[in-house]
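Long-time lurker. I teach an intro course on protein structure, and each term I like to show students one example going from raw sequence to a predicted 3D structure in token notation. This year I'd like something fresh instead of my usual example. Would anyone be willing to generate the tokens for the chain below so I can use it in lecture? Attribution to the forum is fine with me.
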Amino acid sequence: MTRWKPASAVFHGGTQQLLSLRGHRVRTRVPLLQMPINGAARGSPQTLDVPVGSVGLLANPLGEDILIAFPALHGAPLTTLDALMRSTAFNVVRINWPTFRAQFEVEA
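-- Reply from a regular --
Happy to contribute to a lecture. Here you go:
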């Protein structure tokens, strides 16, 4: 059985800790509306609505933000960050650190 912990209990801040969590599964606790898509191609949507319960993978820190990769198809199975990136069927959203701590859970 998968156990989820609030991100605030797991993540205390800092680039090094985030890098140690890279590839971990995370889940939204609330719907997140109009989240900026990182590296969106010109002519494609620049934001994404992320429904409650969406599961993604922690990617990398980016300045004051955290990059989280979500499968393009909501509910698609996730194995590893590398496998998701090879599939090319994903969106990477930028989440600021306080929002991540307050609105996400991390798989324990």
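Some talking points for your students: The longest helix spans residues 81-87. The CA atoms of residues 15 and 26 lie 17 Å apart.
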